[in-house]
Amino acid sequence: MIIAMLAEPALAQTVTSMDTELAKGRCRFIETDGEVGDYALKRCPGLAGARVFTDAMGAHNVSLSFQWGNAKALDVVKSYSIGTKLEWRGFRGKQGFKPYAAIVTVIVWDRETEKTYNVLGVLRMEARNACLMAVVDETANPDALALARARADPEAPTFVCATDKPKTLGKTSQWAQQVIGLEGNPPK
Question: Which one, of 123, 36, 127, lies nearest residue 78 by Cα?
C-alpha cells in the first residue's frame, strides 16, 4: 500500500502547451507557381517528428497536413484559410515532448455575406498519424479555446483516428459543421 501511494505522484503528468508557426518566420516555401499566386506549398516547424505543411491551392483553399518519415502527407483540415499557429498539447518527459493533440484556427468563408468565421479545430496527434477530433465555433462560443483544450486534454489520448468521429463542441454552427465535413464528404 505504501509503495502504491509513493508511486502515484511520479505517474501524474502535467499537460504542456507549445506553439509552432504556420505563417511567416520559420516556415519556408517548398513549391510555388511563381508570380501567379494560385499555388504555394509551405513547410512549417512541427514537433515529435511531424513535418507540418500548408498547401494553398487557388484562391481561398488551404489544407493543413502532417508527414512522418517518408510516408505520404496526411491532409487533416481543409478550408478557406488556416490560422497562423498550432497549439500542441501533450506531456514533457525524459524523452522530450509527446503531443497527443493540436489546436488550430480554421477560417471559413461565407460567400453570401462575404465574411469569415473562425472555428477551432482540435486535432488528434497519434504516433505517425493525425485527424480532426472536434471543432468549436469561436463566434458562437466566447470560451472556444477553453472548450477546445477541455476536450483535447482528457479525450485526445484515447481518441482513435481510424474509428472515432469528430464532434462539435459547445454551441454548434454551420461553420463548425462545414469544417467537420457535414456539408460535403464526411471526414476520413
Answer: 123
Enumerate residues 6+ apart whose C-beta is below 8 A from 134.
121, 122, 148, 151, 152, 155, 166, 167, 168, 169
Distances (CA, A) of 78 to 3, 63, 109, 142: 50, 4, 12, 24
Q: Copy the grid coordinates of residue 86.
A: 498550432
Q: For 163-179, what is each residue's pLDDT tens digit?
A: 999 999 999 999 999 99
Instruction: Say whether pTM exceeds 0.85.
Output: yes
Cβ atoms < 10 Å from Cβ of 139: 14
- Contact 125/133 with Cβ under 8 angstroms? no
The CA distance from 129 to 126, in Å, is: 5
Q: Which residues pair with 88 in a beta bridge?
A: 18, 102
Q: Per residue in 27-65, pLDDT tens?
A: 999 998 876 667 889 999 999 999 999 998 876 789 999
